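Write out a record, fold above all:
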Amino acid sequence: MRPILILMAVLLALWLPSPEGVPPTGAKPVNAGPPARPEGVVVLPGRPGRYGNLQHMRTPLPARSIALTFDDGPDPTYLPQVLDILDARGIKATFFFVGVYVERRPDLVREVTRRGHNVASHSWSHPTRLRYWNPSEAHREIRRGFAALDQALADSPPAQRARLEPLFRFPGLNEGTALAGWLGDRGILVVSAEGGTDDWRGLSADAILRRTVSVMEASGGGVLILHETRPNMIRALPTLLDTLSARGFTFVQITAGPEGRRRATEGPDPLFRP
């Protein structure tokens, strides 16, 4: 039954009519106004510690605001393009990086934080069935992901190191209650989302644009998942951001805040250093 539902969702996204006012990918929105500007930073409370109403409580963001989150990097081909697109619009995001790629390109992690974006963990090797692993192996997988980020920023200035956030996103959003609790005991917040672009399904840039605008309008904003590794998402991104801005959405950056970071780094069994 589930494969049928997934197929129907993909077909719906492909045939979804454009919401009123959504231009084709690459076109400049009518009356777009000035480039989008971030409205500020949103500190996520330590409790309940799990956010994103795809699975948990709604992320406490201001009305019609969006927190951009990018998964699966750092990708040496597409990440620089994403950073330039965000810089051109004054938008700050959070990047959930995979440890094995962080180890290969720590310079990209440092560049992301240098430009004012936050980084967080998306595990070491992106196992989508992590919740079913033996607990000790799952804990090791999570530890290695944070350790890679910690090492990448080891010699960075304090302001850049402070952009390593105590946030974790389960690969495939395939969460496990026990693992989420284990993370919470170490001061790590679990971040899901209010919506996604479905760019990982192989949709065209125009389909990504139409679907994402519809999802954000339906949810009134929230945490949005994008994947920096998907070429069609990169193609859609400039028009997507301009269109959302023209529709009255603002962009914010999520963080656990200084107190949340202190709890994670100074508590028992920390997953990364201050």
In short: The radius of gyration is 18 Å. The longest strand covers residues 65-71. The mean pLDDT is 90. Residues 48 and 57 are 9 Å apart (CA to CA).
